[in-house]
Amino acid sequence: MVVEDINFLDMACLLKIGPDTVMERFGGLINTSFFDASTIAGTLKQKGLIEFTNDYPGPNGILVTTAGKTLITEAETKSAEPFDALDSTILVQMSGGKRLPFELANSLTLRGRDLAFRLYKLYKQNYIIYDLKNGGVELLLTESGFLKVREVQPNMAPNIGQQKAAAKAAGIGPIEKMLQGNAQPQQDPNAKKGMGRLPLIIVAIIVIVVVVVLAKKYVLGG
């Protein structure tokens, strides 16, 4: 049976379950309270990934089902696949502040199952680590993950030359027209020349006025 409705928290918690895991100690394994651990275990049981054993009056054991083992095997297989563009996008998203699986799922519009496999792959390839606590899981970049982001991020967007070629091919015109919102308005050369002549005209008028005033003064004085 293939379980579709899973997420990375399900997988991370499932990986903590061993042959001798009991419900009473499950919270300690996933770094959360007994109440939250019970809720998570109930969810895993509902999805068919685990079963409980009832050895009364002993502790309640937790066993991974065939579906759970199949899920882990598939995750291990996919973790060996080559690093690709989607993996790059996930790392870039994390470097921008996305730390929780549901944030990544929303921004990338990926199914929880597909994202879980991708995150496990990045974990196995040492690009990320995860921390289980308080009934949730937080993702963090490793040093290798940070360096990978520095390597791939410049290639995430086309350069200006590619933008110009694409605009020309689409018949849109120069890329500068596409970016008018960010460009500075061009000045009219003739208007600039006119602004240069204006001070000269003002000076000429002042000189004429001064000459006229002095001429009148000397004529009246004479």
How does this structure look, described?
- This protein has 222 residues and is mainly alpha-helical.
- Among the domains are: 8-70, Winged helix-like DNA-binding domain superfamily/Winged helix DNA-binding domain (Arc Repressor Mutant, subunit A, Orthogonal Bundle), CATH 1.10.10; 83-154, Arc Repressor Mutant, subunit A.
- It contains 11 helices and 4 strands.
- It has helices at 8-14, 23-29, 34-46, 66-78, 85-95, 101-108, 112-124, 143-152, 160-169, 175-178, 189-221, and strands spanning 50-54, 60-64, 128-133, 136-141.
- Strands 1-2 form a two-stranded antiparallel ribbon.
- It is elongated and about 125 Å long.
Entry keywords:
222 residues; mainly alpha; Arc Repressor Mutant, subunit A; two-stranded antiparallel ribbon; 11 helices; 4 strands; 10% strand; elongated
Summarize the structure.
By secondary structure, the chain is mainly alpha-helical.
Helix share, percent: 55-70%
Low-confidence stretches: 157-186
- Tell me the number of strands: 4
What is the strand arrangement across the widest sheet?
1-2
CATH H-level superfamily of one domain? Winged helix-like DNA-binding domain superfamily/Winged helix DNA-binding domain
Sheet with the most strands? 2 strands, antiparallel
- The residue-averaged pLDDT reads 80
Name the overall outline: elongated
Overall CATH architecture of one domain: Orthogonal Bundle
Find the CATH topology of one domain. Arc Repressor Mutant, subunit A
Which structural class matches the secondary elements?
A: mainly alpha
Percent of residues in β-strands: 5-15%
Can you count the helices? 11
